[in-house]
Amino acid sequence: xxxxxxxxxxxxxxxxxxxxxxxxxxHKVTVSPDASFLEMLDELNDGxxxxxxxPVAFESDCREGICxxxxxxxxxHPHGPVPRVATCQLHMRNFKDGETIYIEPFRAxxxxxxxxxxxxxxxxxxxxxxGGYVSVNTGGVPDANAIxxxxxxxxxxxxxxxxxxxxxxxxxxxxxxxxxxxSAKISQLALLPQGQAERHQRVEAMVAKMDELGFxxxxxxxxxxxxxxxxxxxxxxxxxxxxxxxxxxxSKLTD
Amino acid sequence: MSWLFRSLNSSxxxxxxxxxxxxxxxxxxxxxxxxxxxxxxxxxAFNAYVDTLDIIKxxxxxxxxxxxxxxxxxxxxxxxxxxxxxxxxxxxxAVSGTAENTDFSSRTMFVTGSIIFIFLVLHLSTFWYNFxxxxxxxxxxxxxxxxxxYWFSNKLYAVAYILSMALLTFHLNHAFQSAxxxxxxxxxxxxxxxxxxxxxxxxxxxxxxxSIPIYFSFICxxxx
Lengths: 255, 224
Hints:
By secondary structure, chain A is of the alpha+beta class. Helices cover about 35% and strands about 15% of the residues of chain A.
């Protein structure tokens, strides 16, 4: 364990509720460089509670970078300054002694702040309900590998499926667009045989839902790809555009 | 709402409008630059080029109307997207990381586009207006080469041109590859090449157009 503790100034966004006004609150902390970012906040909250003060509300669950629950904008970067990690996997050794750290919630019209650093990301669920699924009949369990899928296609679908739905792409995008998330979900199904039947209605319904929920459009700045903790590629957005345009031309009248 | 209107009004549809109109304008710029380069051959060559355009005037007028329509659609749609995109984030970040995770061309499209629009108004109200209607602003002469020399003898006017062309270079650099991404033509096999072509194209357009005021204002200095 390192002995050289870090002295940090935290500027943390505090907001009592969705419609309440918010502002930054300043806290001084001394923390081990081996602590994770969320452990640092846990320690801060522990201290605040001991003093009878209001703790900082933030979300986390698995703390191993796979559930997509945590998500803070740290010094302007969703999930902090280190590429390809979620906030829970970010360690304090990446910060310098004496540094001031701004901690903000994901900011998007479609992600209203619930309290402090917690935002409501149910808009992502609504996009998924609109078409991010494959309809199946219940029945017997199909045999494994009954549908042959070439390895490179399976790998590409899996790369898209690595999206944990954390919302960092929306937080990073200057337009708060959900296109990287949505295109990853569309891609993972469009690449596989199981996703073919609903391919056209899926992309049209999901794009329409995203627009309805108040996310922005894509300016192709590729900030989303740069900040995504899972490295989801913007080639998925291109695939989604392709799927959308093809669907517009070939889909059934009822779609 | 009709199928077409609904389709083009979606977030992807609006991007397609930007891409189609943008690529049309990109093609137009190339033709425009080729024509302008006759200035370097000399007075007779340039005047002959403009006279040729005069012969096919009715055809040019149709193209001008189509171009105006494309410009208006590109600008209207760009402004609409900009407003909607800003509304998607009502509360801004206190600290923004966009300078680190995006490149300059991509995040300044609205600003560079707006300034290019101001340039366009200036450009049309001088050269286009003089060529088509008034002739030389002082003498009324229809020697087109002289009109070019007249305007670029104004150093301030020339500098405004050169700066606008620098911004156009940034605008085109993002525009070209962005259009391909919007159409869904992004693949690891060829997308790096598309980005390079876009950059080279933007530089050729920027340097090509800016070279004219540089030549007439600062190299020849009205000694033609």
